[in-house]
Task: inverse folding
DNA sequence: CTCTTTATTGTGCAAGTGACAGTAACTGAA
DNA sequence: TTCAGTTACTGTCACTTGCACAATAAAGAG
């Protein structure tokens, strides 16, 4: 039904990253201060355009990640979140962003990347509550990314991505507590993570010498899907008024 | 680090649809026969380029859906699946596809759309098993979409999207059995769906006059997340040899 | 040796799950 | 009217899983 002269409208593709890590027991995400003109000076998620026509999207995400964090690129979990392509989201024109979720253990202090004058770890709750303003629709992307991570912690071994190669069960529990923002019962947590076969496997004892009994060390197992899952406890019933009908 | 002359490489954006429905108690997906040149004559998922620079991605998906199915666009569940943008996936150049999952009740026979010479419902197992060849990476997209739907049936009220506005529990059970490809115990199914508050709510009796007792009619409730979830039974232990360590 | 700290293992009860059978409400034919 | 046929729904019981809660084990410090 189109004329022969019609050709599809080209769009520009960006890659944006929600990079999560744990710092001082709390969930943080990496934000940069924009040095280029749209929203210059405002906070934003790390990201950028494809470098050239043949660059793979996942490769671009890895590139942006190492530009911002100077990371070895191993030991990071990187995964696609979704597409954000609303027509008005970028004043430069039709820019479609492929959002990614990155998770890594105790990341070093960030370095300023190409398009960013500064980069810093910001507590997740500051983003969720709207305390910090983000450029474009990055607030939405970050919120979606954090919620996605929270859900995925229940059914996958994603939590081990927050830890180093070897970790204790107590450390793993701190990951869950930090990401979910809730306290967990230590005894039940031990039983659950060990019941999920292939989740974590023991290696050798350690003496973290925090003053107590040394903890058994574990490393991530082969299984990526958790069964049984670790169901996140429901938040303290807010307006849980379920109306009885008629 | 780039010169001022550098500009981001433009890409072409397509929208592809995995449209699922139930026909004769089995899961079907809609495939079209391509009438245009890349992969002309081969089966493919319905989809196409953005119409113009300002068209929203979700709107484009709705447009392609109605072009192919002549659907009222209400009563359809439409949701983004993910991005498929490998550089070699389309011989025409850098074409990035935003895959969508569409689910609708008992759809009418399809009509040939713009770029398709023919459209037909194909059993899902024919796609999964590779019995039908698909253009581009559409086999992968369709597989991901079906698996996504199967998983989401467990934790969300997605199954009601396969039914009409009003449905019986037996019909809902047929949805689960068709999508999962397994038989379910009717008594336990009744208990579970009614235990998940807000999943389905009763309206008034009906006489489906299939010869038996009339079935209570229900409509989809407000809750989209199912709790407790309806866990999909594990397939008959194939090579479930869990090795006991040391 | 005792106290403190952290790690790890048990125990009981309530709720959920799965396997299984019986009852209820209609239609249609004898 | 009765009875067979068909479909919709409800009930039970053994078993597993879930969560709340407490006790024990293994270090270091004095």
Result:
């Amino acid at each position: 039904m189109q004329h022969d002269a019609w050709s599809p409208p080209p769009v520009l593709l960006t890659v944006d990253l929600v990079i999560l890590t744990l710092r001082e027991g709390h969930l943080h995400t990496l934000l940069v201060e924009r040095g280029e003109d749209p929203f210059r000076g405002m906070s934003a998620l790390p990201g950028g355009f494809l470098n050239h026509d043949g660059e793979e999207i996942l490769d671009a995400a890895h590139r942006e990640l190492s530009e911002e964090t100077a990371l070895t690129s191993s030991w990071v979990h990187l995964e696609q979140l979704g597409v954000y392509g609303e027509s008005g989201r970028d004043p430069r024109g039709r820019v479609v962003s492929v959002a990614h979720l990155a998770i890594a253990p105790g990341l070093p202090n960030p370095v300023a990347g190409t398009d960013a004058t500064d980069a810093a770890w910001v507590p997740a709750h500051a983003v969720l509550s709207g305390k910090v303003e983000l450029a474009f629709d990055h607030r939405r992307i970050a919120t979606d990314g954090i919620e996605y991570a929270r859900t995925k912690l229940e059914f996958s071994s994603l939590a081990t991505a927050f830890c180093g190669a070897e970790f204790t069960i107590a450390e793993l529990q701190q990951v869950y507590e930090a990401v979910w923002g809730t306290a967990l019962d230590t005894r039940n947590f031990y039983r659950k993570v060990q019941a999920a076969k292939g989740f974590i496997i023991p290696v050798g004892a350690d003496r973290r010498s925090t003053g107590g009994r040394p903890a058994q060390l574990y490393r991530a197992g082969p299984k990526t899907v958790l069964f049984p899952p670790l169901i996140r406890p429901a938040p303290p019933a807010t307006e849980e008024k379920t109306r009885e009908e008629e």
The CA atoms of residues 17 and 163 of chain A lie 19 Å apart. Helices of chain A lie at 57-69, 124-128, 138-155, 169-180, 186-195.
